[in-house]
User: What shape does this take?
Amino acid sequence: MGGIFVFGLCAGVFLTLLAASSVPDRDTHEDNRPQDMRKRSQNLLQASVSVAPALLRPDFWIETVSDVPGPRIYVLHNMLSAAECEHLKALGVMAGMEKALIIPYGGKDLVESTTRTNTAAWLDFQQDDVVSRVERILANVTNTEPENGENLQILHYEPTQEFKEHHDYFDPATDPPENFEPGGNRLATAIIYLENSDEGG
Assistant: This one.
């Protein structure tokens, strides 16, 4: 699990979504998706999102893991090339990977935590063409605008580092309103794996 970078975007007003991407870099493409998966991903794109074809790799497709009435969970396959993943990892290193902080439940200040032990770096909104493309794809998939999401964040996990189970939103019943009122509460999280793990979660 060493050296795994995970790139996360926590959306401000997204529909419930969890996205993950594997990034094979092949010269030729074999479409080995099950036929029903292809149909489901095409139907999802046609029915609920309008992703500009120029934004997508030719082998991009969406797998539905879970949908209403349960939580909406989708996997976006082949969203980025290997070169784009390396580029995003380099941006995180240049931005300065630092110990990730959290706002504890019921709190309002960022603090170090024993429940989150990885390092992280925030990227600027529309920092470059690759960052802008990722922001636009995620906005298209969720029927929102790039401005609705938080800035992209690069996460790095060494062996034994973790982010323990948690809610990725603020509970209005226990958290102070200033935590979520300015940009709205988080309704979805998108995670892109920039490097595959050999083992572990």
